[in-house]
Design goal:
Blueprint: E1 2-3, H1 4-7, E2 14-17, E3 23-24, E4 27-28, E5 39-41, H2 54-59, E6 64-67, E7 78-81, H3 85-96, E8 105-110, H4 115-128, E9 133-136, E10 140-143, E11 146-149, H5 157-169, E12 174-178, H6 181-185, E13 194-199, H7 215-223, E14 229-235, H8 241-244, E15 251-256, E16 263-273, E17 276-285, E18 289-293, H9 298-311, H10 318-327, E19 335-336, E20 344-348, H11 353-364, E21 371-375, H12 383-396, E22 399-402, H13 412-423, E23 429-432, H14 436-445, E24 452-456, E25 463-466, E26 469-472, H15 475-487
Parallel strand pairs: 4-5, 5-6, 6-7, 8-12, 8-13, 9-12, 13-14, 14-15, 15-16, 20-24, 21-22, 21-24, 22-23
Antiparallel strand pairs: 1-3, 2-7, 9-10, 10-11, 16-17, 17-18, 19-20, 25-26
Helix pairs in contact: 3-5, 4-9, 4-10, 11-12, 12-13
Length: 490
């Protein structure tokens, strides 16, 4: 229980009716979950306006309504008006959980790509130095030994504050989190004092109905983080960094390949051995040492260099940084699975044309004997994505295995036919195998020396969605089953 006055102590507000001394049991933003004594936040969504539920939640016993405009409810209900209920919910939620973000050193990462991998790299390095680190990201929330499945990159503010409170209670000292442009736009991180804010890169994405109106708004939302952190660490190689940082209020440090970067990557070198791809480089500028990472591609340099820049502020010894980066892995992000000494097999989340093109381009730099692509497309989604992914794989891969991926309420063969339409615009060789396990088995059994085989689209997902039901399906498990069946001569 908290008193309303405590919850709103850091917010400008006007009490339209009722008492500011009322006790609040909980903060709720879903009208279906309101119970007697709760504070209900009337949020204007893209499709539904929470103000319309005011009479209903009042009848359910809500003690307080947080609104942007007057509502018609009984005098027994306290109504408080604020300028922006989303912002107010974030700040009130922080107060409800006793401002957990102030008890933790918060690290926030924003940008189009690289957020997920970078968070895990930072966590790996800091934990190697003895820190207890919580994580909030696209794949999961990690609190000690507890792993919670994530539904949003940046959770709703109340949910986020509840996680931070659990992290503080569990003894976490540092939290590293992905901060999405949508999360910033919707004030989900309002009230959190970030020690460090990180900008990875920008490219057009998340633009359209329900997301961002245009690229300018997308950049502006990313930039909000740098008016909410003490120190900003930014990718100086990205052409948009100055625009994103406009109006920043933080100290700045830079990273990249550019000669003026505070943390600079030099002497990049692709590392390739049978069944293994990685990258090595030298860190110059504010630090001076060499590093090798078991994740292929130039983007791995940026991700790891970001992590190094961050961890330099926590006095992590160089040898611990080097060792931690060597073992840092992210489920479903260019994740190598050892199956053969002859060829390399990996799993990646690339599930649209832009991501697939970037992934295949990265792998082609290693000059594999053959680049083999295995992927499908989700049902009840854009057909254009299917055409584009088929065309990208046809142009860039030496061989493509078209298969199934979350067909939902469509027939897998219909989806695969759409992918084939894009494929036929190219001279690419391909085969169609609807059953994903059979497709993976085919790729493994036909792997040749020097091949790089990538299973794209599923990444960290551990299910296959068919006609409204999510069936367990983890590609790592499928690979293990295939290898076990091979050993048993099945």
């Amino acid at each position: 229980m908290k008193h309303l006055r405590e919850l709103l102590e850091r917010l400008e507000h006007v009490c339209l009716q009722g008492s500011m001394d009322v006790a609040v049991k909980d903060i709720v933003f879903d009208s279906r979950k309101v119970e007697p004594g709760d504070l209900f936040v009337c949020i204007r969504g893209t499709k539904v306006d929470g103000h319309a539920f005011a009479p209903d939640v009042a009848q359910k016993g809500a003690a307080v309504l947080l609104v942007e405009e007057p509502v018609d409810v009984p005098d027994t209900v306290t109504v408080v008006q604020v300028e922006d209920t989303r912002y107010a919910m974030a700040v009130a939620s922080a107060a409800y959980f006793d401002y957990p973000g102030e008890k933790l050193q918060m690290i926030g990462i924003t940008g189009t790509k690289g957020k997920t991998t970078t968070t895990y790299m930072i966590k790996s390095i800091l934990e190697s130095a003895g820190y207890k680190v919580g994580l909030v990201g696209t794949i999961e929330i990690i609190i000690g030994d507890e792993h919670i499945h994530a539904s949003h990159t940046t959770p709703e503010s109340y949910v986020l504050q509840s996680y931070l409170a659990k992290m503080a209670e569990a003894g976490c000292q540092i939290v590293v989190m992905e901060v999405s442009s949508q999360g910033l736009k919707m004030h989900r991180t309002a009230g959190i004092p970030f020690e460090i804010g990180i900008f990875t890169n920008m490219s057009p994405d998340h633009i359209g109905e329900g997301e961002h109106a245009d690229f300018a708004e997308y950049m502006a939302c990313k930039g909000m983080l740098f008016r909410q952190c003490k120190k900003g660490i930014v990718n100086i190689d990205d052409e948009h960094w100055r625009t994103v940082l406009e109006g920043h209020t933080c100290e700045l440090e830079t990273f990249g390949f550019a000669s003026g970067a505070d943390f600079r990557a030099t002497e990049p070198k692709l590392v390739s051995r049978p069944g293994y791809l990685g990258i090595a480089y030298h860190v110059a500028g504010k630090m001076d040492f060499s590093v090798e990472i078991d994740i292929p591609g130039r983007f791995s340099i940026y991700n790891s260099l970001t992590a190094i820049a961050v961890c330099s502020h926590f006095n992590v010894p160089v040898e611990k940084i080097q060792a931690a980066l060597k073992v840092a892995k992210v489920k479903g992000r260019v994740e190598m699975i050892p199956v053969s000494d002859d060829f390399t097999l990996m799993i990646d989340y690339a599930h649209n044309a832009m991501a697939l093109e970037s992934l295949l381009g990265t792998l082609k730099d290693y000059h594999p004997a053959r680049l083999v692509s295995v992927f499908g497309c989700g049902g009840n989604r854009s057909k254009l994505r299917r055409y584009e992914m088929g065309e990208v794989s046809g142009k860039m891969a030496d061989f493509t295995i078209i298969t199934s991926d979350n067909p939902r309420f469509e027939e897998p063969l219909d989806i695969m036919a759409d992918i084939e339409t894009g494929m036929k615009k190219t001279d690419g060789n391909y085969i169609m195998i609807p059953d994903r396990k059979e497709a993976i088995a085919y790729a493994i059994h036909h792997g040749q020396p020097g091949d790089v085989i990538v299973l794209a689209g599923k990444g960290h997902e551990d299910y296959q969605e068919i006609k409204g039901v999510k069936y367990p399906m983890d590609e790592r498990v499928l690979i293990a089953e295939i290898l076990e069946e091979d050993r048993n001569g099945q």
